[in-house]
Amino acid sequence: KRARAAAAAGGAARARYEVVRELGAEEVRWFYREERKSWKPFIGYDSLRLERAFRALAPAAPPVEPVCVRSGLYEVDVASGECYPVYWNQSEKIPVMRGQWFIDGTWQPLEEEESNLIEQEHLNRFKGQQLQESFDMEVSKPVDGKEAIHSLKLSRNHVDWHSVDEVYLYSDATTSKIARTVTQKLGFSKASSSGTRLHRGYVEEATLEDKPPQTSHIVFVVHGIGQKMDQGRIIKNTAMMRDTARKIEEKYFSNLATHVEFLPVEWRSKLTLDGDTVDSITPDKVRGLRDMLNSSAMDIMYYTSPLYRDELVKGLQQELNRLYSLFCSRNPEFEEKGGKVSIVSHSLGCVITYDIMTGWNPVRLYEQLLQKEEEELEDSWMSYEEQRLLEELYITKQRLREIEERLHELKASTVSKTPVLKFKVENFFCMGSPLAVFLALRGIRPGNSGSQDHILPKTICNRLLNIFHPTDPVAYRLEPLILKHYSNISPVQIHWYNTANPLPYEHMKPSFLNPTKEATSVTDSESASTVPSPTTSPVLVRRHYGESITNIGKASILGAASIGKGLGGMLLSRFGRSSAAPAPASEPGKDGADGDDKKAPTVGTPPLPHSSSGFLDPTVELEHRIDFELREGLVESRYWSAVTSHTAYWSSLDIALFLLTFMYKHDQEDPDKSNLDTI
Fold this sequence. Notes:
Layout lengths: L3 H4 L3 H4 L14 E4 L7 E2 L2 H12 L11 E3 L4 E4 L4 E4 L8 E6 L1 E3 L8 H15 L5 H4 L14 E4 L3 E7 L2 E6 L5 H10 L9 E5 L13 E9 L10 H20 L5 E8 L11 H4 L6 H9 L2 H7 L4 H22 L2 H4 L3 E7 L1 H11 L3 H18 L4 H27 L14 E7 L3 H7 L19 E8 L23 E2 L30 H5 L10 H9 L1 H10 L7 H10 L17 H7 L27 E3 L8 H7 L8 H11 L1 H4 L11
Parallel strand pairs: 12-13, 12-14, 14-15, 15-16, 16-18, 17-18
Antiparallel strand pairs: 1-2, 1-6, 3-4, 4-5, 5-6, 7-11, 8-9, 9-10, 10-11
Helix pairs in contact: 7-23, 11-13, 14-20
């Protein structure tokens, strides 16, 4: 991206001034280093502001404010030379370096201590001299044949000036740190006899115009289970997703003046839950395996526990609100310019995020159960005494509800209310999500409307998208919970990121998992148009998948009620059976926009459908597709893939393009804004 090769062609091209003088702030370049990798340069906007803050340091001067860098995700304390994240905690320190002298070719900075000594010596010897004097010398003559006009001895190496602008580093001991750095970069076992050329000032001048685009969309990345086992994992996963998204933005969305920012949401480590009670009752045999399960799968048990569920929900909800408030306080123009928020959740995080958005609570489901029992009692025959007692019970419960409502007005919250988010969710991306199983166990059954409102109203979230790898054992489909016949319709195949002219997702026709089954949701002409192409897989390739994993997923989703016990089993046995009674007015699945608007606020605990048998209306199609499937690798083992696929989403370029395609959707509708009109 930066034209280093052209700028590094020779010393003459590097001359910015006619005489040697102190380096300007724009010639110095600041660097940072993560995970012991090579030094990475800050962009010009960041480097220039860091250098100005550094030059403001003085013994008697007031402390310098930390400098925001890297799109505002980090801050740098120039006094201590450390960089730290703003939105999350990180144990590993990120060192920063002020670069003045650089290695030829790689433009890696010399270590700061040596660089300062060389710079001081250079100014003492050559300050005020004309740079042009050195160009009159025989430049083409090999440097070995030139005598050094000045030399500086360092600890394990020395620097020779063959001219004002021809400076070489020679190693006196290959074990020295600076020599190891040089030889490693150049690929030599030891420094060459001709030394390594050094450059004063960075290859590219820093300018305030070299700044990151404004953030128009923030994405909260929510982890699932296992975070207790590896607390920094979600930070690394989000960093991988952010890096892949940057590559896609540069490739396809470079014409846009804004960008999408990804922020990790680490909600697990701050929770105490049961303390160490579970650890104390864990047997010692195969302790390592048991500890791993306690740190991962135990989160699912915590979430199904009425004692700890609220703690998990509040932990995630508070962290989401904290991050949003912090981001807005540091970016006040975000809300003013209509910035949008999306959520990417993984595994169990999808379920918790869904419950926060909809306000679902098991207490409300239990209240539904009691109400259903009352209705059944009213319909049954009973004696006069039983009727009188039932009326008294009904009046008492009504009075109890009135008292609870009054108490609710006095108190800020009750057990059955979950705090809401401070922002509207534009897109909710589920990755490797078991949400469909949880909804099925709560009694959600397919309806006869193709609206997303059946499970998540658009008043709460504009778009729900369920992403999964075909062999991910934790992931399940959501579409068959809205329209049952979609269990026989293939999920939408996610485009490979390098597919040329891919068909827009909204134009892709449904294709069937099993071609022998009768067509139920598309016409013959539409089915015939679904031919093998970059946008739809061949039928034979999809057939194996359709006969194995999808059927297992369908059986798990639609048949999970048969194995439900306790509260879930009671609810499903009562609400899941057929009934001749008319459905409530606010029942999900009714056609018409007005009906959707009326039922939207109550989706957290929807009245459960009165029928769940058969294909309700096979001619109805979904307004928007929800299930999107990654393409399987051509050579990967299906069984090995089942082990690794649940965590394979973070670095996928295909997923990065998929996410950005939907988040930049409104910008793409303007053909002048983007060069990705076809996505």
